[in-house]
Amino acid sequence: MHTTFKNKTALVTGVSSGIGREIAQLLAAHGTRVFGTVRDPKSKNLNWLEG
Asked: How deeply is 15 buried, as exposed, middle or buried, from its count of CB atoms within 10 A (0-12, 13-18, 19+)?
């Protein structure tokens, strides 16, 4: 079975670091619209989300 994530929407928790960040980046790279949550919205680890 082959699953495509293009034109899908995902909610990922913990996108500022670790597994959450890696999953969010991977999904975004495959055309998924990603909504993410973080503990600290002022985190400097969120610059990859811009754009």
From this structure: buried
Helical residues (DSSP H) of the chain, grouped into ranges: 18-29
Phi, psi of 37 (to 5 degrees): -115, 150
Tokens of 26: 């991977």
Q: What is the pTM of this model?
A: 0.78
Residue partners of 17: CB distance under 8 A and separation at least 6: 45
Non-local CB neighbours of 2 within 8 Å, separated by 6+ positions: none
Instruction: Give, for all 51 residues of the chain, the pLDDT tens digit.
Output: 577 889 999 999 998 889 999 999 999 999 999 998 888 877 777 766 665
